[in-house]
């Protein structure tokens, strides 16, 4: 089962309004190096897999991003987006274990990290196949 973990500084950036979950552009990138939730702060702190064979440096732009309350007066807020797929073309996509989410809009700090999904083992997308990140319920994350 995939596990989502917040980067510690994301909570501060959200509180300081540096990250706008409603209006900014968000991306997901792949890494095979374990992120450090306590010390990694911005995209540059992450060792991204090499671009190629269907993987583009910087990762995938999230679509249909929403930040909304899950129901009237429930007090539970969900950050959500459409599922997305990396397709291997012309060769395999390099091994990865983690999908890292970040804000691609914020300049200060530059590209702050939000959180990551740990798939618990390294994966390879072989040529001609795809890997879909199933956002599902409760979205990327929920806050109560």
The gist of it:
With 144 residues, the chain is mostly beta strands.
**Roughly what fraction of the amino acids lie in strands?**
35-45%
Helix segment count? 1
Low-confidence stretches: none
Q: Measured on Cα atoms, how large is the radius of gyration?
A: 15 Å
Q: What structural class should be given to the helix and strand makeup?
A: mainly beta
> What's the pLDDT, averaged over the residues?
95
**In whole angstroms, how far apart are the ends?**
22 Å
* Overall spatial form: globular
The H-and-E topology, N to C, reads as: EHEEEEEEEEE
User: Sheet with the most strands?
Assistant: 5 strands, antiparallel
Strand elements, count? 10
Helicity, in percent? under 10%
- Which strand order spans the largest sheet, edge to edge or round the barrel? 1-8-7-2-3
Count of domains: 1
Topology:
Elements: E1 3-6, H1 8-15, E2 26-31, E3 60-61, E4 66-69, E5 77-80, E6 84-87, E7 93-103, E8 113-125, E9 130-133, E10 141-143
């Amino acid at each position: 089962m995939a596990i989502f973990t917040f980067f510690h500084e994301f909570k501060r950036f959200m509180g300081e309004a540096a990250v706008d979950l409603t209006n900014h552009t968000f991306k997901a990138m792949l890494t095979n190096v374990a992120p450090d939730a306590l010390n990694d702060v911005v995209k540059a702190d992450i060792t991204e897999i090499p671009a190629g064979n269907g993987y583009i440096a910087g990762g995938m732009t999230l679509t249909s991003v929403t930040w909304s309350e899950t129901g009237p007066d429930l007090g539970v807020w969900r950050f959500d987006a459409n599922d997305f797929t990396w397709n291997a073309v012309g060769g395999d996509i390099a091994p990865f274990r983690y999908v890292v989410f970040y804000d691609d809009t914020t300049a200060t700090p530059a590209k702050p990290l939000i959180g990551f999904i740990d798939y618990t083992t390294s994966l390879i997308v072989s040529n001609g196949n795809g890997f879909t990140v199933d956002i599902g319920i409760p979205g990327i994350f929920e806050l109560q």
